Amino acid sequence: MLFVGLLWAIYLYMVAPESYSINSCYSCFVIFLVSFIVLYKKRCRYNLICFEFVFSMVFFFTNYAYPLFCYPIIPNFSLFLLEFPEEYITSGCALATVGYVAFCLGCLKYKIDDVVLDKNDFFRNFRAHSCYSPITKLLILLLIVSLIPILLSGVYDGNWGEGAIYKVLADILIFYIIFVELTNGQSLKRVFSKNFVLVILVLCYVLEITMIGNRGLLLRIVLLSGVLFTNFYKKIKPIYLIACMMGGMFLLYFVGKVRGGGSFSGFADNDMPPILQMGQDLIINNRSLYVLMEYHDKYGINFGQTWLMNILSIIPFAQSIFLKVTGLKELDISSAALVTDLYFRENNEEVFGLGTNLIGDIYICSGLVGVIFFMYLLGAFLSKIFMRAQRGDMLYMFIYAMMFMDSIILTRASYLTSVRSIMWGLALYYFAKKRIVYKEEGKDKVEEESLVL
Hints:
Blueprint: H1 2-14, H2 22-44, H3 51-63, H4 65-70, H5 89-107, H6 119-124, H7 133-153, H8 165-182, H9 188-194, H10 196-211, H11 216-232, H12 238-258, H13 274-278, H14 280-283, H15 285-299, H16 308-312, H17 318-326, H18 330-333, H19 335-344, H20 358-390, H21 394-405, H22 419-452
């Protein structure tokens, strides 16, 4: 059924008219809905706290909400007040459908329905590495202090600290410690009591950074904790999940309103239905898809050049060094920077990030074939690592947790956006493992010498 849906989606893309077609968009949505139902029955029926479910919900907002519900009623709201190629709305909806169905096919590559998490084997193969706690506390404390003047000044900066090595390291250390503490078989009471000071520091840091407009850290921590809790403690009931999702959307929307909306304050539209207003930060990335599709048709594919930003981010300072050596600009190695530049290079206005779109990001790198291949590869990769994680492989569980943490931002980000978190997290693990092995070998050596004496 999914394969037929893929062929039909490709056909709709090939024959998509340049003018807006509500019938074509609804046909694409039906294919999306049927594909989601198939995926839900195979992957999400017994556990909604999974990558596929969250990704699908967000994918709807970033690719279907605007052409189906906004454009026919309120075509010009928020960032859609900025000029964009409206002739790509229908074909963009079809292209997104092609990518989503390919993703579903990849997710079903490995059969994991009957695999149950082997917690005992997991705990047996995993040791908690607490050597990073002191440096994490110090980094977070420094971040808290540095954020106080910004918070008091009333500045709204949703991208504060993005790319700064000390902030990235602090965030990944937080993710790593959360993973360590929630996967070693301890009770939640023990976890909180043992890390009381760290928990307080993290809460203060998250509260501050959320109040100045950066809501990504809060979302990622909630998602990471949720997937680990449901796999190692108790499954979260669907009703609680839905309530948390709605509450989270409202909270983030409320924070944005209280702080004045930042760069988007001039684009507010109070005539929009509340649910669309709360999902506005996701819906605006529909625009990025259309802009990137137009760019692709004008200049062709770039063979992955706009993925270099994420690839180079693995190595500290590699991005700036690469740009200086090659003479390229940030817009040449990042689709998000490209979308922003395409508008503001011809408009003398205050510059702010316009974001990107997962499907558009892949499309300018490798075209239609690339959208099919890389979305299928994403689904197959997730299926593979989840299968290995459920069988007690700690490293695969870590990779899956990092991917799940980004499930809510991936559809509005670059394809390789999770690479740095995964690679730095694995580096932290291997360093801690080496340290523990070295300590144990030293201890054994001392014991042997004492026995000889």
